[in-house]
Amino acid sequence: MTRETIHTDEEWARILTPEEYRVLRDAGTEPPFTGEYVDLDAHGIYRCRACGNALFDSKTKYHSGSGWPSFWEPITPDAVEEVTDVSHGMKRTEIRCGKCGSHLGHVFEDGPQPTGTRYCTNSISLDFHENAAE
After folding, report:
1. CB-based burial of residue 28 (10 Å sphere; 0-12 exposed, 13-18 middle, 19+ buried)?
2. Catalytic, out of 48, 97, 100, 120
3. Is the peptide bond before 114 cis (omega within 30 degrees of 0)?
4. Non-local CB neighbours of 92 within 8 Å, separated by 6+ positions
């Protein structure tokens, strides 16, 4: 998937709530255990709250205990992009929407099999569509 320039920063600021903008466009993080999807076990598709791009299937969601929705793989390899993040004195891998570049969270190599990865996301970055078929 080729990333698209969907909106300018000014347009995003008008479209998103201040908290959505802080997380999605300024790479913020919501407090752990506060997001609406942390404990959700329904079947469906998680999409980017900013642009609607399909990101994760609920079949790959698991309870990591981290306080944020966690998945062991994206819905397609190009649904998310990985970017080196050296903020806050750490070196991590940030995950962004593969379509609009919005911040989703981070990926870690401590997840379950079959991938061993944990895509740790902010609930506010996601929009859940129950029983959505791709």
Report:
1. middle
2. 120
3. yes
4. 84, 85, 86, 106, 108
Per the annotation, the verdict on 120 as an active-site residue is yes
Domains of the chain, residue spans: 9-130
Closest C-alpha among 49, 133, 53, 52 to residue 98: 53
Grouped pLDDT means (10 residues each) for the chain, 134 residues:
76 96 96 97 97 97 97 97 90 96 96 95 98 59
Furthest-apart CA atoms within the chain: distance in Å: 41
Q: Is the dihedral of CA 45, 29, 108, 102 positive or negative?
A: positive
- Please answer whether residues 78 and 98 qualify as being in contact, where contact means their C-beta atoms are separated by less than 8 angstroms: yes
C-alpha 92/C-alpha 94 separation (Å) is 6
Residue 128's H or E segment, with its range, is strand 126-130
Q: Does CATH number 2.170.150.20 belong to domain 9-130?
A: yes
- Number of continuous H segments (helices) and E segments (strands) in the chain: 2, 9
Cα 66 from Cα 62, distance rounded (Å)? 11
